[in-house]
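Weekly modeling sync, notes
Attendees: AB, CL, MP (scribe)

Item 1: holo prediction request
CL wants a bound-state model with FE2/S2 (inorganic) cluster before deciding which constructs to order. AB pointed out that an apo prediction alone won't tell us much about the pocket. Agreed to run with the ligand included and paste results into these notes for async review.

Input as submitted:
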Amino acid sequence: MEDSRNNRRRRFLAVVTSVFGLVGVGTLAASFVASMRPSARARAAGAPVEVDIGDLREGQMMVVEWRGKPVWIIRRSREMLSGLGTLRSKLADPDSQVEQQPVYAQNETRSIYPEILIVLGVCTHLGCAPTKNFERGISSGLSEEWLGGFFCPCHGSTFDLAGRVYKNVPAPTNLEVPPHTFLSENRIVVGVDSGRAA
Ligand code: FES
């Protein structure tokens, strides 16, 4: 009688131990999987952000967040690109010589592929958020000569469609081009500084 009670107790303890063991393994596995995803804190600290631009149409802009800042991605049309070469004399840094710009932004379009512009949507004067103004001419509300670009409502800085700052405005430098890499024609990683992929 005593033996059978002891056997039952041993079996019960064995079951309880294995159940707790499985729960422990499951919890560890779940924490490991969770640790592989970038946490919100890691993203804010600068983890790279992968973006699919397959649905971005000509003339459109999308916004993603990287390091807590807005990153603008614009698919420029042929017409939008056509004005860039005509503005040199009106721009403060047409060749993007100021330091904050990666090598692949030091060209007229400030981009790896001419049609895709990637810049931080943060005014280089005091950090306001400029607005896009892609209209040309008087319908832009700016001037007859305006060829499209960005306007900062805080103190009136203007930038062209490559994010290059105009002369005689408060912003001292072009909009910043963040480090980025193309994984393919329509997939970009913002925050990885290797420029063009294959
Ligand atoms: S913050 Fe943009 S012009 Fe001053």
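Recorded for review: Residues 123, 125-126, 128, 152, 154-157, 170-171 surround FE2/S2 (inorganic) cluster (CB under 6 Å).
Action items: CL to compare against the apo run; MP to circulate these notes.
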